[in-house]
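Repro:
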Amino acid sequence: MGYQITEFGQDVLDDVKRLCDRTLEAQLRAADRSGERPAEACRAASEMGIGAAFIAEEYGGAGLELQEQAAVLEELAACDAGFAVSYMANRLAQAPVEIAGSALQKKLVYDVLLDGGFAGFCLTEDQAGSDISGCRTRAVRQGDRYILDGNKLFVTNGPDAEIFVAFAVTDPDGETKESLSAFLVPGDAEGLTRGAPEHKLGIRNSGTCEISFNRVSVPAGYRIGEEGGGFSLAVRSLEQARIWCGVTALGVARRAISESTAYAKERRQFGKPLSENEVILFKLADMEMKTEAARLCCSAALERLEKGLAVTKESAIAKCLAADAAMECATEAVQIFGGYGYCEEYPVEKLLRDAKIFQIFEGTNEIQRLIVGRSLVRER
């Protein structure tokens, strides 16, 4: 059970697997422990053209279908969730220009990603987390340019991004839903500053920081879509992002199952392998069933997205189930490993650190349950 993959897509996926096994795994594990930027891993991924896997062929990308992109992202996450999150964040930053961007705007973003670079999505603020209507960053029109002022928090890829999608209020006296707009902002724009990288519990191989705009000037042609159209653009982008978030979480869950199964077959207690203990088998079975169910939901949501159908409820279900599966699988993996699972020498402690974030970002799982519940009430 899983994604629908063509022969070409499978070839790309096989290449990604080999890169992860032969190169990325060791480099990213060392970077997670040292706290240093995984420069060598980024270079290796760039040389292979990982960024192209998520871009349409007409813009110079590999032209993979959404299901195939999901398989690639899950594979990267099974290797290292933080590294995969950097590409997940790229996918989020692509969404606004894919939905409403001009040819120029698409080129600006895709050229960065095809060259192995990273992009950032600047929406969250001190008073605008799950409730994006709290956005206070302002964009004032001055002739043929906009001047941006404000601060954005928890920007994934913030320390390294070469281009940002930033949301700002263009009418401070209006309701946020009618006055929010989206802009492309080059990473080297004058007045843009990056805060110190956050020291995080997990996903350490993706950089996160605050981004500040102090009278940052961008051309009016860098506004994505219509002025005041940013709220719906953010919502639609986040709906897509939740599927990619779920897919990335599945990589953590899958790795937890793989590590736990291998350990259970090898570890002997009371004269027999742990894998012959029913309690352990039940744990493994539950881990596998929850992960497979979540993957099917992600696949179904991607199929709807590919067809241009609404994914509001479906993306919330996919993200919520996959994030919960990742956390539960990682927790059970540590339990199966026992004391060893709590030590850095074994991989599952990192999986537990990495898993938690998927229940938080792109809308907390509590928000996802609200979306699903409200969808049911409206439908019936």
